[in-house]
TrEMBL record:
InterPro entries: RsmH, SAM-dep_MeTrfase_MraW_recog, SAM-dependent_MTases_sf. Belongs to the methyltransferase superfamily. RsmH family. Residues 49-68 are annotated as: Disordered. This is Bacterial methyltransferase. GO terms for molecular function: rRNA (cytosine-N4-)-methyltransferase activity. One of its GO terms (biological process) is rRNA base methylation. The lineage of its organism: Eukaryota, Viridiplantae, Streptophyta, Embryophyta, Tracheophyta. Residues 49-58 have a biased composition (Basic residues). Residues 59-68 have a biased composition (Basic and acidic residues). It comes from Buddleja alternifolia. Pfam families: Methyltransf_5. Keywords: Methyltransferase, S-adenosyl-L-methionine, Transferase.
Amino acid sequence: MAALTAATAPAKSLLRKLLFHSPLLPKRSPLRFSISATTTATYSTLRNKNKNKNKNKHEKTQKQKQKADLLLKRRTRSERELDEEGFSKQYGNDNSAHVPVMLGEVLDVFASLSLKSFVDCTLGAAGHSAAMIQAHPEMEFYVGLDVDPVAHEIAQAKINMFLNKDSGSSTSDLQAHTLLKNFKNIKTVLHDIDGKHATSGVHGILMDLGMSSMQVNNAERGFSVLSNGPLDMRMNPQAALKAEDILNLWPDDEVGRILRDYGEESNWFSLQKKIVNARSTGGLHSTKELVDLIRSSASWTRGGRQGWIKTATRVFQALRIAVNDELNTLKDSIHSGFDSLASGGRLAVISFHSLEDRIVKQSFLDIINCGEDGGCKEEMGLYSSPKFDKEKEAWIKQIVQGQNATILTKRPITPSESEERLNPRSRSAKLRVIEKI
Ligand SMILES: C[S@@+](CC[C@H](N)C(=O)[O-])C[C@H]1O[C@@H](n2cnc3c(N)ncnc32)[C@H](O)[C@@H]1O
């Protein structure tokens, strides 16, 4: 029995074949019956033991990860107090409204600059844009971009309100452009609007990544795990590729690759097989069909409802990243964004998952290490520079000094506890900032 317990999976399967399918054994042999009962019991014990072992291992890793996350959170939490009353007044009764994440922190990042020009790469509902325009009456040139026509329309109306064209307020001098464009084209967009800003650079750029509440709340867009809709997931509805094309047409390995690399899903291979098998019965066409497929695998994924929701969230994230080519776009755009800054200008990026944050962090490091000739400077100084006014810029804790830029957030800034409580969508947000020398 000990040997059986120690047997490897292929050996066990061979043993089972020999015991159950041996031509030497009569079909209804009592011997076969007695061996089968014992063997079944042993397998069941084995399976349970392995299950418990894996469960304990998984729980231990999860606990370690949670502990590390908590520690990092404690170190990076924003110290800024959220105006809870104002927040509740503005967003409390409206579940559909998009609430700008880390708004106070974003305002702090640009507060010390004379922000004559600003580009919001991700307009959404223009929450950040509107607040930035209000906070910087000196602003002369504003550009807001989004690939989503719904966001673009909402944002344009909001920005127009702040322009107050007839009121004679200082913002009336603002030259504002809201465009239905991908932020990866920031250089050409600036060039096409105004060659001057393309050459001299702009003073501030913001990228607030991820989806808006308008996108998630509209089931027809296919972003939501919890409401049924078509498997679309395009941020730009004119784009050719939809999530269902990936699920129903892409090569098996590619489906697995995105689940593994973009969803960081440990059960990627089983899911890949299930998705590919579903093709023989017509494929997957709605978010419910995909969620049901994931739920039907819940016996081997852990954690009941929370388990399948987490798996579904990872699968949806993977598809969304692939449909919108989000990671490549981000990598390229951080570099083009940085190139589009004027000297002293700042680029702020809010990311919502570790894959994005890793790209932001690495791209910033690449930028500060490389000189104009492309040669990389070996040393990175880490110090508190007298250049920054500690009183006015208390949010700057540790910087990383490079040759042509300074990373102002050695560690990312994460939302305050009160913001996380009032706006759970902000929980995974990380803000990183770089300043051009
Ligand atoms: C989180 S929302 C921005 C919310 C906004 N900051 C606000 O305060 O309302 C992200 C927006 O970025 C847009 N977006 C995502 N990828 C984009 C890209 N590559 N180019 C332009 N817009 C993009 C999405 O369509 C979405 O509207």
